[in-house]
């Protein structure tokens, strides 16, 4: 099946007479079990174990996991309560005291903060590197490097990284590559096919698509996912609620259609912003002016709906936009039907989240100026989106 069909049909339950046509929401925490069916420990969990307790597995959650695995072309998937639970669970599972994590210098703020504050406290060495510069990545590898974690496109500045090249560098050094593909979605990019070992998603974003459920996932090899389930979901406990899984399953059905529209609307908005006299730079992977446009054309089948721009007097402009916009919403998050806009001041995020100094901090400033506006282009009529920006920017 192709993606648009998989999003609706992959892993669907058997078509028995009387069975529901849409995915059932199984709102149960435990399941009938006999004395010999399964042991009490997470260590007794095998691939063939029956449903037991919802933190271990649940039919609604299992369907979401199987559908995500199909869309990513992976052997297995594991759902989490949020994207942060997924990323933190994977990092804790793959790293140990004395091992080294090579992290993208720009990535989701929560992941950057968790790695540099919490993992470091547990004895994991964490260094950051510009993942769009393969020579710098190769030079930053250490004998004890176990994992490279990258986002492409990277939140919030939409830098890209070459997954196939990074996978080669990681594997040559005996490490693994994990790719946070939240912004690309499996409709644009399938990191596993390019050599990545793990794919991480915040399902809260495009996968859900409606901004009404938190969720996360990791997709990878079946044996790795089974070990991750024991440690990162059963023991750390960040299991997704069946209702959130059901909402995300419903969102996934329209993911391929929505991504086509997000991309088309983003093309209109990015093109408009690029010609606006108040705006200095616009970042969208589909623009020929994007520094990584050639890589985007190779690696992304869809340029997604995230647009960034840099403008003069950005703090005042942020206030003006928040006060005047009527169709766009000034709020965080991304990937939903409503268009969202948010301003991220450069010095704040460098200090509080990325902790970059010297050349790395300067490279970030060169990209974002004093601050960057992050736009999640939604599904409204693109003419209304442009007219609203025009009146608010005037
Ligand atoms: C939102 C986001 C996360 C965190 O996901 P939550 O579901 O909010 O916990 C991680 N990575 C990226 C790229 C994100 O955009």
Automatic annotation (TrEMBL):
The modification N6-(pyridoxal phosphate)lysine is found at residue 205. Keywords: Pyridoxal phosphate. GO terms for biological process: transsulfuration. One of its GO terms (molecular function) is pyridoxal phosphate binding. GO terms for cellular component: cytoplasm. The keyword Oxidoreductase does not apply. The keyword Iron does not apply. Belongs to the trans-sulfuration enzymes family. This is Cystathionine gamma-synthase. It comes from Teichococcus aestuarii.
């Amino acid at each position: 099946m192709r993606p648009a069909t998989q999003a609706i049909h992959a892993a669907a339950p058997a078509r028995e007479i009387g069975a529901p046509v849409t995915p059932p929401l199984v709102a149960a925490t435990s399941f009938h079990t006999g004395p010999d069916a399964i042991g009490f420990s997470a260590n007794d969990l095998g691939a063939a174990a029956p449903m037991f307790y919802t933190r271990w597995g649940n039919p609604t959650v299992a369907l979401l996991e199987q559908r995500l695995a199909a869309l990513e072309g992976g052997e297995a998937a594991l759902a989490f309560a949020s994207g942060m639970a997924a990323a933190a669970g994977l990092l804790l599972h793959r790293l140990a005291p004395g091992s080294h994590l090579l992290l993208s210098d720009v990535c989701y703020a929560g992941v950057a903060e968790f790695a540099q504050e919490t993992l470091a406290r547990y004895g994991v060495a964490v260094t950051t590197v510009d993942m769009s510069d393969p020579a710098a990545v190769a030079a930053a590898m250490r004998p004890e490097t176990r994992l490279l974690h990258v986002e492409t496109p990277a939140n919030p500045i939409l830098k890209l990284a070459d997954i196939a090249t990074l996978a080669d560098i990681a594997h040559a050094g005996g490490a693994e590559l994990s790719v946070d593909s939240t912004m690309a979605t499996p409709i644009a990019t399938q990191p596993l096919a390019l050599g990545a070992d793990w794919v991480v998603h915040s399902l809260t974003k495009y996968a859900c698509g409606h901004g009404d459920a938190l969720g996360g996932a990791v997709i990878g090899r079946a044996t790795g996912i089974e070990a991750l389930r024991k440690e990162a979901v059963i023991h750390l406990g960040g299991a997704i609620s069946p209702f959130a899984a059901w909402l995300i399953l419903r969102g996934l059905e329209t993911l391929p259609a929505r991504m086509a529209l997000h991309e088309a609307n983003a093309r209109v908005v990015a093109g408009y912003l690029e010609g606006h006299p108040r705006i200095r730079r616009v970042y969208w992977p589909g623009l020929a002016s994007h520094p990584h446009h050639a890589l985007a054309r190779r690696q992304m089948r869809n340029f997604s709906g995230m647009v960034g721009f840099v403008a003069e007097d950005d703090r005042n402009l942020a206030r003006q936009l928040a006060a005047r916009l009527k169709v766009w919403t000034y709020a965080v998050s991304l990937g939903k039907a409503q268009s969202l806009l948010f301003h991220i001041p450069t010095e704040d995020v460098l200090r509080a989240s990325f902790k970059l100094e010297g050349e790395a901090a300067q490279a970030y400033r060169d990209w974002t100026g004093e601050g960057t506006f992050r736009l999640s282009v939604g599904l409204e009529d693109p003419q209304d989106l442009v007219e609203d920006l025009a009146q608010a920017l005037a």
